[in-house]
Target: dTDP-glucose 4,6-dehydratase
Amino acid sequence: MKKILITGGAGFIGSHVVREFVNKYPDYHIFNLDALTYAGNLENLRDIEDRPNYTFIKADITDSTVISSIFIEHQPDAVIHLAAESHVDRSITDPLAFVMTNVIGTVNLLNAAKDIWKDNYEGKRFHHVSTDEVYGTLGSTGLFTENTAYDPHSPYSASKASSDHFVRAYHDTYGFPVVVTNCSNNYGPNHFPEKLIPLCIHNILNNKPLPIYGDGKFTRDWLFVIDHARAIDLVFHRGANGGSYNIGGFNEWQNIDLVRELCKQMDEKLGRPAGTSAQLITFVKDRPGHDLRYAIDASKINEELGYQPSVTFQEGLSITIDWYLNNQEWLDHVTSGDYQNYYAKQYS
Ligand code: NAD
Ligand code: DAU
Model:
């Protein structure tokens, strides 16, 4: 049986990756290693927590001693590394937390894997999950390719760029088996309501303002989270050793247009008169260092690995809104803080 250690599996994207692997590969054992920070929520994995091929391990990747002992005990054959501090706004107020988890934590994992694999890399793989933000910002034209030079601007993207460099350095220096994926903005179920789409869904439900930074013309490229999980599965199994793959769905939206579309769908689903939710849109002070535009050229993964997203943006957004409407308990637990007791209830 192949043993795969997934970090950050209690978070937004990690929970979808864990579910994809637990369901699709009964012959694998999936270890979900997560510190359960504010962003970690084991309620995201309630449906698979009792599966025989799944084990949760509460641990902090910044603690090298603990991480090494976990690797020695469980001897994973592969790592899919998603654990991170992920929110740009938080990185502006507390950059060091991002250095600790995203940079030091990644190096701790590389060292722990390198120590147990002992230069025998047959059948081994370290898949590092990264972001398009490492490329910096685009002007009004062009796309990020795998060859675009790194030019991070926020403390978050600087920490992710640093971690990507370490992963590639271990490949180039030690022949360590790695693959790196750089994905665009994700949306979907289980998204923590500090990020634009779930924040707006939450605020529409509660008749609160929808804060739009600056003039709202900043552009992001959105991918449904399950399509990111599918792409990770594909690259993990078939990506070239030492390779990099951009992941995206050619789906750019200016923030203001996206929020207006969200308002439209929410009004329809809530049976409110058209235009009701859009009245909550409020332009607020811009994010410092705000990158203007991200857009992924996903040609490489499309052509080399035959990857295509499974849903259009309209479908994915509709599924996402329905999920939040049908899982208001999840949202209540997150906003009240009650979700942080789930670990104690399940794993004490
Ligand atoms: P998230 O914030 O929802 O989840 C992060 C998870 O990591 C949480 O479960 C948290 O408890 C865990 N974690 C944080 N610090 C830890 C530590 N020190 N030790 C162990 N676990 C720790 O993040 P996400 O949005 O799911 O992003 C997952 C990964 O994907 C990140 O590496 C992020 O950079 C990358 N990414 C995210 C997006 C996006 O749109 N959200 C897009 C591209 C890439
Ligand atoms: O591009 C990939 C990245 O996407 C990931 O690496 C990050 O982990 C993830 O958080 C996300 O970063 P963004 O900063 O793009 O996501 P966020 O949802 O915070 O913001 C999306 C856009 O909306 C961005 O231009 C800022 C803007 N925004 C955000 C918030 C929270 C607003 O206008 N108002 C808001 O309240």
